[in-house]
């Protein structure tokens, strides 16, 4: 009897599978996948060479529209597999009409990014309707991805209604350990907007170099940058911030302190403890920093606050975003302990946590007085050694960014009432898996067959796009707790990255997060959709490359040309 029932059962599974595939994958797709994408009768329509876009006049939307019109008319994208879609018989598409109900909403955290888009079957116009100009920008990107070929065609009869699940969708880039030119940062922002990412978290300074020109403290970059040509002037910053506005991308500056400040010592040795010391002396002494590049601000010295306040003021003056990132990660006790004034403080029963508290007490009110919400790395309250009492950091004014212990720290932070940005090192760190960078590493000199460090960085292995795509940043949270998770950021720490590899380290893995945070990683039935996403991501990666973004391949080209043939059908069980 068994044989009799199995066949229809498998057949019906097969039918379900086929209909699902049809339901989720179209001949032309948009990345990140829109929340709803209806295209009941796939057809295409020629785009008129006279194609026009009408739109409300707006300081940032107007240049965006010009840019997209140019792209739409000149891109002529050729899909890896030519979409098999018939042309409609109607006259070419002449107009895209954009309407925005509220043109005054500024680009800020939580701004309404929803839009709807329809392309005509017949001879009428295409429409984008959005709540804000920022939503209209998302709609323009979607429209541009529906355009292809030469002569240019557009997917016809499409209706899309779209909005993101998470409001904060970012990329963090460290420009201290290695330098990136302004053009690189602009290209990053451009690629982010293609992926509907909306926050460039700029980790500007660290122990290694201080590339930001702070007008009231010119010596910081003057002496702390890697060189005169490796600095960001206020004019550079303005260019980057404005470019971000024209791409719907906010720029969130981070000045990491009080640790990670060795580079400040070039200008002000007196305010930095353990500056320029060998990071981990032989013998039993503890390391003075998590990696080579030592130095921490000394919270006991008044001069420290003079300099820090100038830096805060000038940075906030340059960056209009309502969020300011104050760092506060990885405070190293041994580094502070090298300083005689701190030794005296500790000898009279002061604790290092009190030192951090002093630093926070003297700097947080300053930032808040400038009308900013502060983001700190989670260490400020979760570090094992040096941390402050959460009662000093009001959840109303402070957002926590988590990077350790995956879902467990996220849970701990939201249950303490904080809004959280997730950048778990186990999932979202793009630098992992490129080996360690310290020299004289004897792990690499072991006989063949023994562990040679496995080429692992501290956070190895490499985070694949699937690892990133499948991570649920609200895993294990109640619905109410999940509401405090405002979004996530992939992070590229730059010990082993600079402009030469930036694109390929970030893309298309950041695209994987972009889709998960925009519309999720599951299909209509609630199943994870990574299998279905593979071909779409490959196609999207090729399109990004054609647009000048050096995204790395995720599969042999053969796999898309032979759809499904590279998949495994053997489930892995743990
Ligand atoms: C484009 O506009 C020009 C001038 O208005 C007109 O002569 C031409 O027919 C138009 N072409 C199309 C394809 O609509
Ligand atoms: C295109 O049109 C032809 C002729 O009407 C039809 O046979 C074919 O199935 C259509 N192809 C698609 C993909 O709709
Ligand atoms: C966002 O804008 C859309 C229009 O695109 C509107 O329907 C929706 O209610 C707005 N959402 C919120 C939360 O205001
Ligand atoms: C296009 O035509 C189909 C039916 O052929 C209809 O269901 C769909 O709503 C139309 N789409 C638009 C955008 O007019
Ligand atoms: C403070 O920031 C909020 C939002 O970020 C803004 O609405 C408000 O106008 C600002 N207030 C001042 C005094 O600048
Ligand atoms: C530090 O604490 C110890 C034990 O609590 C106490 O005996 C000592 O007097 C304290 N020293 C100072 C300088 O406060
Ligand atoms: C920091 O400020 C809080 C609240 O005002 C206060 O209770 C605490 O004593 C201060 N800590 C230090 C080390 O100054
Ligand atoms: C390399 O490490 C060894 C210990 O493993 C040490 O004796 C030696 O001095 C180091 N060499 C350099 C150049 O730092």
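^ structure tokens above, recovered residues below v
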């Amino acid at each position: 009897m068994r044989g009799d029932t199995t066949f229809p059962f498998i057949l019906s599974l097969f039918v379900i599978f086929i209909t699902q595939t049809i339901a989720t994958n179209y001949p032309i797709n948009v990345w990140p996948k829109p929340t709803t994408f209806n295209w009941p009768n796939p057809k295409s329509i020629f785009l008129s060479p006279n194609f026009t876009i009408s739109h409300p006049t707006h300081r940032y939307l107007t240049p965006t529209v010009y840019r997209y019109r140019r792209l739409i008319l000149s891109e002529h994208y050729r899909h890896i597999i030519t979409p098999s879609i018939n042309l409609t018989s109607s006259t070419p598409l002449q107009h895209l009409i954009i309407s925005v109900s509220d043109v005054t909403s500024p680009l800020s955290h939580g701004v309404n990014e929803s839009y709807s888009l329809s392309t005509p079957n017949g001879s009428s116009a295409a429409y984008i309707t959005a709540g804000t100009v920022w939503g209209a920008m998302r709609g323009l990107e979607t429209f541009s991805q529906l355009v292809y070929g030469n002569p240019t065609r557009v997917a016809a009869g499409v209706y899309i209604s779209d909005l993101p699940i998470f409001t904060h969708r970012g990329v963090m880039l460290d420009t201290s350990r290695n330098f990136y030119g302004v053009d690189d940062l602009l290209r990053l922002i451009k690629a982010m907007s293609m992926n509907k990412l909306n926050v460039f978290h700029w980790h500007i300074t660290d122990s290694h170099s201080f590339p930001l020109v702070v007008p009231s403290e010119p010596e910081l970059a003057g002496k702390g940058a890697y060189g005169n040509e490796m600095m960001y002037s206020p004019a550079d910053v303005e260019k980057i911030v404005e470019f971000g506005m024209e791409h719907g991308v906010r720029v969130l500056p981070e000045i990491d302190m009080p640790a990670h400040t060795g580079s400040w010592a070039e200008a002000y040795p007196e305010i930095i403890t353990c500056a320029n010391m060998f990071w981990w002396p032989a013998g039993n002494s503890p390391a003075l920093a998590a990696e080579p590049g030592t130095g921490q601000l000394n919270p006991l010295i008044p001069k420290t606050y003079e300099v820090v306040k100038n830096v805060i003021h000038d940075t906030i003056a340059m960056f209009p975003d309502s969020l300011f990132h104050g760092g506060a990660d990885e405070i190293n006790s041994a580094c502070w302990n090298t300083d005689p004034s701190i030794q005296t403080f500790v000898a009279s029963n002061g604790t290092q946590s009190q030192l951090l508290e002093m630093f926070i007490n003297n700097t947080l009110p300053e930032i808040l007085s400038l009308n900013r919400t502060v983001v700190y790395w989670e260490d400020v309250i979760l570090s094992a050694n040096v941390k402050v009492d959460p009662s000093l950091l009001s959840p109303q004014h402070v957002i926590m960014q988590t990077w350790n212990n995956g879902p467990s720290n996220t849970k701990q932070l939201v249950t303490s009432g904080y809004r959280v940005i997730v950048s778990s090192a186990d999932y979202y760190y793009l630098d992992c898996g490129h080996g360690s960078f310290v020299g004289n590493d004897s792990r690499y000199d072991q006989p063949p067959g023994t562990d040679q460090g496995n080429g692992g960085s501290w956070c190895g292995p490499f985070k694949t796009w699937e690892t990133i795509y499948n991570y649920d940043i609200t895993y294990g949270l109640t619905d109410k707790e999940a509401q405090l998770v405002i979004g996530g950021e992939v992070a590229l720490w730059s010990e082993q990255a600079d402009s030469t590899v930036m694109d390929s380290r970030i893309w298309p893995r950041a695209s994987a997060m972009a889709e998960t945070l925009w519309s999720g990683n599951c299909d209509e039935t609630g199943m994870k959709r990574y299998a279905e996403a593979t071909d779409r991501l490959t196609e999207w990666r090729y399109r990004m490359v054609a647009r000048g973004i050096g995204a790395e391949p995720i599969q042999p080209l053969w796999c898309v040309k032979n759809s499904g043939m590279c998949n495994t059908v053997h489930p892995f069980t743990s």
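The two ends are 33 Å apart (CA to CA).
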